[in-house]
Amino acid sequence: MSGKYKRMIMILFIAVVLVSLCWLAFNKGADTPADTAIYNGDILNTTKDGSNNEPNPGPETSGAPSSQFKTITFEDDTAGGFSGRAGTETLTITGDGNHTEAGSKALKVEGRLDTWHGPSLRVETYVDKGYEYKVTAWVKLISPESSQLQLSTQVGDGNSANYVTLASKTISTSDGWVQFEGSYRYNNVSSEYLTIYIESSSNATASYYIDDISFERTDSGSISIQKALTPIKDAYESNFLIGNAISAEDLEGVRLELLKLHHNVATTGNAMKPDALQPTKGNFTFTAADALVDKILDEGMMMHGHVLVWHQQSPSWMNKTAAGAPLSRDEALANMRDHIKTVIEHFEDKVISWDVVNEAMNDNPTNPTDWKASLRQSPWYEAIGDDYLEQAYLAAREVVDGHPDWNIKLYYNDYNEDNQNKAQAIYNMVKDINDRYAVKHPGKLLIDGIGMQGHYNINTNPDNVKLSLEKFISLGVEVSITELDIQAGNNFVLSEKQANAQGYLYAQLFKIFKEHAANITRVTFWGMDDNTSWRASSNPLLFDKDLQAKPAYDAVINPEAFIADHEPESTEAKQVTAAFAHPTIDGIVDDVWSGTPEIPMNQYQMAWKGATGVAKALWDNENLYVLFQVSDAQLDKTSTNAWEQDSVEIFLDQNNAKTSFYQDDDGQYRINFDNETSFNPTSIANGVISATKVSGTNYTVEVMIPLKYITPMNNTKLGFDVQINDAKAGTRQSVVAWNDLTGTGYLDTSVFGVLTLIGKATD
Ligand code: XIL
C-alpha cells in the first residue's frame, strides 16, 4: 500500500471514530417510529434526462406524522394531485372506462414525448421516515398495441435525486386493466420531495389510463443495519479501495451508516454527469453535487468523479445544433474543453480520479484491430471526429498539469469489457493514444487508468473478466472496477439458488480482483441494496431491500470459502452424434436424415415456453449439415433485430476448444423461416447454403456449413448447439436450445454441447 493510502486510512479511522461518537449521541432517544432516522433494466429507471428538474408544485410539508392516503379513483373529477412530470403531458379525467365496476372515471395520459414522461404524484406528506410503503396502480394501455410500462418512485429533487423502478411489465391493449405493485422503504425523505409516477423505459409516446392508486405503509416496521459485519473496506484494506454509488438519500440515517461501515470512496450516481452540471451553455449548476461531495469528504471518505464526456445524460447543446445536426468541430471542441476545465477546476482535488470519457466503444466490434472504426457513433464523435477522445484527455491533462499539487488520475470507463472484442478495441485505443503521447512526454501517460464498469449477470464468465483485466494491466495503466453489480433473478424475486449463484460469481470475481490487487486501485459497487439499485428488479447487490447482507456479501468478504462451500454441480455438456451422409439442401427432408439421431431442444432460456422443435446433424468430408423442424404458433419477422424474428440458430466451435470467447473457428449461424440469414461474425457467411419450407405456421430449415478449420473424421468432436427463437408481435418471447441455458452462446463457446462425427465407412 502506498504512503498516500496509509495516510488516507489514518484520517479515515479518526473520522470514523468521531462520526461513530456523533452517531451514538444522535441516536439516543430517537426511537419513536415517526422520528427514527432509518431508511432504490433490461429495465432501467430513467432520470429526467437533460430536462428541467424543477419540482412540481406539490403539497406543503410540515415534518408532522404522515397524513392518511386515500385511494385515488378520479371519481371526484380531479386528477387527485397527479401532474405531468414534464408538464407537457395531457392528463384528462375521462369516463372512457374504469378499473372497477363501481366507478366510471380514470385518468387518461397522452402527449408523452420522452420515456420519462408520465403522471406523477407527490407523496412525502404520507410518509413516515424509515418505513416501507406499498404502491399500487391500475394501468390500461391505449397505444401502441404493446408497450413496457413501469411504476417508479423519485427520492429527492434535482441532480442528487434517485429514481427507482418499483414494478415493470410489458402489456398489450388487449390485456385491459393491469395491476402494477411494488414497495419502497423511504429511509430518507431527501428534502421532503418524494414522488410516485408511471412512465415507460422504452416507449416515449405510449398513452394509457391509470386508476385506483394506493399508497400504504406495510407492517414490516423500521430497520437497522447489521453493525457487527466485517466492513468490506477492512477486508480489502491492503488490496484496494471499496466504493459505492450515491445519491442524496444515502447521506442520512441507516443508509449513511451502511455506506460508512463498508466503503471508503464514493461516486455520484447521477449528480456529476454533464446534464447535471451544465444543463444549458455556461450555466453551471454545482449546488447538488457540491453538497454530496462535501458530505462524503466530511464523513472521511474519498470521491471519484463521474463523468465529463459521454453520449448519455448530456445536454444536446454541447455537440448538436437546435435542429439536431452535429455542431462544427471547433464549436463542439470548445464546449467539451470548457466543460472539462470548469468542472475539474471546480472540484479541485476533492476527487482522486475522473472518468474523462465514458462508453466510447461499440459493443462486440467486428474488427477490434481498427479501434477507430470500432468507436460508437456518438454525438461527440459526429461533431468532432475520431480524435474527440484524445482531445478530451489532452484538455483534462492540461488542467491537472496546471495544478502540480493535485493527484488526480484520468480514467477511461466502459461496460461489457468482458467481451474480448470490445476489450481488445479498448486496449488498442488506449495503447495508441498513450504511445503517441509518450513520444512527446517521455515516461508519461495521457490515460492513467481503465475503469471496468462491471454491470454483470449470473451468466457472465469470470474467465473473460480476468482476460480483460490482464489485458488492460499489461498497458501499464491502473485499473478500477467502477460500477459493479450482478443481475440475478427478475421481477424483484431472487430464489435461494439464484442468490447463491450470484454470490458464487461475486466470489469468483473478488478472487480475481485480489490476485490482481497490485494493479487495481478501487472496486466500486453500483448501489448498496437491491431496493435502490438502478436495476432493482434483478436484485444485483450485496444487501437486500432491508439492508441485510445477502450471500453475495459473504462471498465478497471471503471468496475462497464461499467458492469451496458453493461449488455448483458441474453441468456436463450434452453429447450427440452426426451420421455420415450428404442431404440435398432444399427444405425437403430426404431419407438420409432418418439415419441420424434427433437433437431435442428443451432448454428454455426465458420464462415463456414458445416454439419447439428438433434438429439433426449430418456430415461429409467438407461440410456439416443441420436440419430443423420447428413447430410454431405464429410466424413473425417484423422486428428489425434478426434474433427477434422466428428463426433457428446453430452455434459451432469447430475445434471444440470451449473458449470463453470466439476464436476464428467459432461462429453463430441464424436462418429465419423465410431463409434470411445473419451471421456472427459476418465473415463466416462464405459458403453457407440454406433452404426453408413453411407449412402453416411450422417450418423446416436445412443448412450446409463448410468445415474450414478442421479435417472432419470419424470421432471428431465439434462444439455445437442449436436454438429456436420464437417471435410474436415484433419481440422475442421464447428461446429454446439443446444445451445452453445461459443465452451467452453468441460470445462464449464454453456453453456449447458436443457433436461427435461418426459413421464414415473406412476406405
Ligand atoms: C445510471 C444511474 O445509476 C441511473 O440512476 C440513471 O438512470 C442512468 O445511469 N453506466 C454508467 C452510469 O456509466 O453512469 C450509469 O448510471 C449506469 C451505466
From TrEMBL:
<dbReference type="InterPro" id="IPR003305">
    <property type="entry name" value="CenC_carb-bd"/>
</dbReference>
<comment type="similarity">
    <text>Belongs to the glycosyl hydrolase 10 (cellulase F) family.</text>
</comment>
<dbReference type="GO" id="GO:0031176">
    <property type="term" value="F:endo-1,4-beta-xylanase activity"/>
</dbReference>
<dbReference type="InterPro" id="IPR001000">
    <property type="entry name" value="GH10_dom"/>
</dbReference>
<comment type="pathway">
    <text>Glycan degradation; xylan degradation.</text>
</comment>
<feature type="domain" description="GH10">
    <location>
        <begin position="272"/>
        <end position="560"/>
    </location>
</feature>
<dbReference type="InterPro" id="IPR031158">
    <property type="entry name" value="GH10_AS"/>
</dbReference>
<dbReference type="InterPro" id="IPR008979">
    <property type="entry name" value="Galactose-bd-like_sf"/>
</dbReference>
<feature type="active site" description="Nucleophile">
    <location>
        <position position="483"/>
    </location>
</feature>
<dbReference type="InterPro" id="IPR017853">
    <property type="entry name" value="GH"/>
</dbReference>
<keyword id="KW-0119">Carbohydrate metabolism</keyword>
<dbReference type="Pfam" id="PF00331">
    <property type="entry name" value="Glyco_hydro_10"/>
</dbReference>
<dbReference type="InterPro" id="IPR010502">
    <property type="entry name" value="Carb-bd_dom_fam9"/>
</dbReference>
<dbReference type="GO" id="GO:0030246">
    <property type="term" value="F:carbohydrate binding"/>
</dbReference>
<keyword id="KW-0326">Glycosidase</keyword>
<keyword id="KW-0858">Xylan degradation</keyword>
<dbReference type="Pfam" id="PF02018">
    <property type="entry name" value="CBM_4_9"/>
</dbReference>
<protein>
    <recommendedName>
        <fullName>Beta-xylanase</fullName>
        <ecNumber>3.2.1.8</ecNumber>
    </recommendedName>
</protein>
<feature type="region of interest" description="Disordered">
    <location>
        <begin position="46"/>
        <end position="68"/>
    </location>
</feature>
<dbReference type="InterPro" id="IPR044846">
    <property type="entry name" value="GH10"/>
</dbReference>
<keyword id="KW-0677">Repeat</keyword>
<keyword id="KW-0378">Hydrolase</keyword>
<dbReference type="GO" id="GO:0045493">
    <property type="term" value="P:xylan catabolic process"/>
</dbReference>
<keyword id="KW-0732">Signal</keyword>
<feature type="compositionally biased region" description="Polar residues">
    <location>
        <begin position="46"/>
        <end position="55"/>
    </location>
</feature>
<keyword id="KW-0624">Polysaccharide degradation</keyword>
<dbReference type="Pfam" id="PF06452">
    <property type="entry name" value="CBM9_1"/>
</dbReference>
